[in-house]
Design brief:
This protein has 220 residues and is an all-alpha fold. The chain is built from 9 helices and no strands. It is globular and about 50 Å long.
Length: 220
Amino acid sequence: MFTASFLRTVSEIAQLSILVPLLMILIRFKRFGKPFITLSVLLVMASIISFMAYIHYAKEENNMYLLHIYTILEYIGWTFFYYQLFESKIIKKVLVVLIILFVLFSIANTIFWQPLEINNSHSRSLEGFLLVCFAVTWLYKVFVDSAIKNIEKHPVFWINTAVLIYFSGNFVLFTAQDLLLEITLKEFIVAWTLHGFFLILHYLLISLGIWLKKHRTAHH
């Protein structure tokens, strides 16, 4: 069983891991096209909200309202990122409609089911499911078109992999939240530590994708 010290260390590393892709942004920013600029804005926003959440935590204040706000902004950011990757007008229209529906659902979830004081697991689960679908669709498009040679060297491949792994884990974790609430506090903390590992891997893979960005290219 993991010790409390180990679990706390993983949580702290997970929060600080966003500094790695932020550093990569500073190094590679001149090479960015529109999707990577969108990604940069998303990461900067995530770091600001994470810092605000930590301030509330340090003051022993409830910071769940930030997660409600961030979930909507995060979903919009990632969806817009994929909007810029896909060329199909049909897919683009679907993504726009899904943004509107997701925002409406998240607001309704906050008003009727999961208020600002508690974890918005319903919205997080839906977000995870939809973003995993986007990631799988992009992979399918790449393999069908066979337009990318040496895909392991392609920046978006690693960023897409980051989305696929992290939000798959998120979907399972938040979907199972009701079950997790019935286990012991120690087991609950261990389960959330897995989220920390997913988050660290998420940011490291994004960092790798940004590092591999050699020059301005087309969206894909």
